[in-house]
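Supplementary notes for students who missed Thursday's class. We covered one full example, reproduced here. Read the sequence, then the structure, then the short commentary at the end.
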Amino acid sequence: MARTALTREEVLETAAELVRRHGPAALTMRRLAAELGTAVTSIYWHVGNRESLLDALVRRTVEEMGALRPAGRTPAERILSVAGTLRRELRARPHLIAMVHERGLTERMFLPAQQALVHEVHAAGLRGAQAADAVRAVQYQVVGFLLVERNRERAPAQSPGEGELWDPATAPDDPPLARALARPADPERLFLLSVRALVTALLAPEDGAGGPG
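Structure (token representation):
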């Protein structure tokens, strides 16, 4: 017997989970109804047709991406927290993010993160074009790093791999470097390292600022 108690939010959450696990193509009204244990007509009553459902999922994703809350004692720490949260949220829902992009809402989705970054670069003393460059540099770093991560995760097995290419015996001038490059990369550590270096450079006073002309 089909269930009768169903909410729009439950429909959207189940649909979003289907997309997260299997991609948009897996989201059919029949499969969604089976997941929810209800009739297809009940799905239509709550969210309309499939296109309306996809539009609702996109709007929901944009709203969720707007819930960024910086953490930390200094502007630099809070910028790092925004960058880290943004990367995690983008990684958690690649199919939904792709749907947002296809509907031309990518810039709208990134706006809350940009606004949070603007607040922090202002707190660090940056203004105008310099502040804008800092905001975009952090955003591009996050997105670019994520693209590299996904490319490495989806790439076929490499032969020879890094472990074979970086044999310490072939790098006698710096064996520790060769051993380090032969080990698998640690994306979390590299992300923090790269973003921290970028933020430190962006917030550093310009050489000669306030000095004699």
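Commentary. The chain has a mean pLDDT of 89. The chain has two domains: 8-63, 70-203. If anything here is unclear, bring it to office hours.
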